[in-house]
Predict the structure.
Amino acid sequence: MSSVLYDTPGPRAKRRNLVLSVVFGVLLVLALWWVWQTMADKGQMEGAKWKPFVEAQAWTTYLLPGLGNTLKAAALSMVIALPLGAALGIARMSDHKWVRVPAATIIEFFRAIPVLLLMVFANQFYSDYTNIDTDSRPLYAVVTGLVLYNASVLAEIVRAGILSLPKGQSEAAQAIGMRKTQVMTTILLPQAVTAMLPAIVSQLVVIVKDTALGGAMLNFTELLNARKTLAANYANVIPSFIVVAVIFILLNFLLTSFASWLEARLRRSKKSTGAVLGAGDAAELNAPGELVGAHGTGAGAKPDGGAGGGGGGAGTGIGGDVGKTP
């Protein structure tokens, strides 16, 4: 099937694509074999280095507590950043300058600062001006940095999603007397959610991965930091990196899979049945003596068969024999 950006390949193009796919597959297998052999030559594939990962102690002492802290920081950041980003994105589209300008300033300021720098500043702020204990301070700093940065990015995602909708959506809603707040909450946002969902999920994946920055700089005992302690005790640096990488891949795969399922569900729920009603179906849906109009129905027919005016905006009276009552 052809489109504006893609033409259906012909026989020659199909053969070329098949050859390139085979060549790429062979090169990938060779690269994996080379990596395997190199690790084996360095002694990284010995059973003693992988044995801790099949025992409960390595998981209960190091990996699972670190994974719990990773999930805790990521979940708190998502719960706070999502509504905050939506509020900032909507505020940046406000008609009032005193709302729009501060929102734009906040978004551009925190979006321009590296998230690691925000974490370090937050950690120092909590150390100097709050009574948060030393053990809890890294978690607070990590969540603060993730929220400030990702809320700013999510705000732009929300704004772009709303602006991507046809302008007629807003104009039609305003034409029937809806206020801008009503238009935003009942018309635009529900439709924009489906369009924004892939970008939002991508940003949530970034949040999960960026929790590792807290372990690198603030000694936050998340999954990657816990791996460091495990590798020091079992002398299996490379295997521990591989296991942690697989855990992150599984986490993000589950997150994206759930988002894909949710997006498909939302799209299905917004589709109509496509059924077309005929004149006979319309007669069954409306009791005798009613008016069927382009915009509504109304009980305007008179019992004596005269054409009545009805409640529909452009109502057509059904009179004569149809309008008679027994």
